[in-house]
Amino acid sequence: MLSAVKTISGPAGLLEIRIKENSDQARGLVVLSHPHPLYGGTMNNKVITTLEKAFYGLGYHTVAFNFRGVGKSEGEYDNGIGEQQDLVEVLRWAKQGLNPSQVVLAGFSFGSYVTLMVLNQLSDVDGLCTVAPPVGLYDFSQIQAVEQPWVLIQGGKDEVISAQEVMDWAMSRSPRPDFFWRSKASHFFHGELVWLRKIVAANF
Question: Alpha-carbon distance 126 to 152, whole Å?
Fold first, then answer.
């Protein structure tokens, strides 16, 4: 495994990334977006690292990164707007270097919102994985129909967002995501990370 932490040029300065390259016959590329920068969210968040390990174990190249203003990434928090530009640039950089056969975007909490919004700008994403999207905390009305295969994972005891509101929103979508519910899981999936990893392994 070739694993490296480095910085690349981003829209607001340098962006810190962690790249883990799989074999030459990799199944594709996954880019992972972390939770809210102002509440301790980084690319080292345990849900993000769990997703990273799960996708890497399936044979994907993985790229996790810190949004602007987090870790060694330059710039300042931009309410999810500039962060969309960060994700687009990381994806562009990764695709150029790895030339993947397919691209999956994965996000947790705030990172899910950024990931869903970025789909409005991209036409070359092949799959989506969102964990605990912050429905009710951000304006989800601008999110267009997701035509790609889409896995949405939600904990029933989420203490940050309304799990019921997430479910209602997901079921109102057309097409609907493949929805996975863990009744005893909190927002950060304490004690449920093995289950989370299994869901990813079974669906990608």
Answer: 15
Q: What are phi and psi of 31, to 5 degrees?
A: -110, 125
Topology of the domain comprising 2-203: Rossmann fold (3.40.50)
Domain edges within the chain: 2-203
Residue 101 DSSP class:
S
Distance between CA 20 and CA 3 in Å, rounded? 4
Residue 175: is the preceding peptide bond cis (ω within 30°)? yes
Predicted model pTM: 0.97
pLDDT, one tens digit per residue, over 32-79 is 999 999 999 999 999 999 999 999 999 999 999 999 999 999 999 999
- Torsion sign, CA atoms 42, 71, 140, 62: negative
Q: What is the tens place of the pLDDT at every residue in 99-134?
A: 999 999 999 999 999 999 999 889 899 999 999 999
Range 45-50 contact pairs with CB under 8 angstroms and sequence separation of 24 or more: 45/108, 46/188, 46/189, 46/193, 47/108, 47/109, 47/131, 47/188, 47/189, 47/193, 47/196, 48/108, 48/111, 50/189, 50/193, 50/196, 50/197
